[in-house]
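Chapter review: from sequence to fold.
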Amino acid sequence: MNRFVVLSIVVCCLLFLTSCASAMQDGQTTHNEEAISGIYNDEAVTNTSNSELITTHVSGDFMEYMYIDELASRATYIVRVEVLDERVERIDIGIPPTSRYEINTVNRLEVLHVFKGDMEIGKIMEVRQFGGQLGNEKFICSHRTTLPIGDDLVLFLACLGIDNRPARLVNPVQSIYRFASLNADESIRSFNDELEVLNDRNNLTLTFDDLSRFSETYMD
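The token string follows.
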């Protein structure tokens, strides 16, 4: 009986160690608002210039919001914008006097309407998200949402106000909505109509009534 118990314990230990090794191979890393906690490299891929493209996958670790009003309260700006263009650059995301650089995708935006924040209509501003390719370095963040050029979007933005650094999304999944135009057969849009989300993992809804409330709350 005792030999059976000992053998069972040994088998359980072996299974546990095997599962841990598998998890370490398949595990994803985390990336919070301003820092990366460990990264791992994907297999190298040879590009057209015969230099190795090093791909690094980073998963996001961001605050998730249960209600749209909670998201709005955390935003520095809630703005309707047109996406003008996109570039990738290495940005200092450290808090002065400390410097720390990471590869970011930066979009230029033209502000069309302001629902929260001190921002002029027509202003050209920038928003950054972690990830992108620069030279032979490519960072892929699982939570990054592409902002299609030319799209009419509503964004919930946070701004640290450090050295004109581009703003960032309050949450990279929940902060982006498409401001759809009226259909040809519609004469009026319902306040209960929901804006389209750009990321399928977004569990929040944003209506035109919400935007009206935000204007009344934050702009008066």
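Two observations follow directly from the output. Residues 36-218 form one domain. The chain is about 20% helix and 35% strand.
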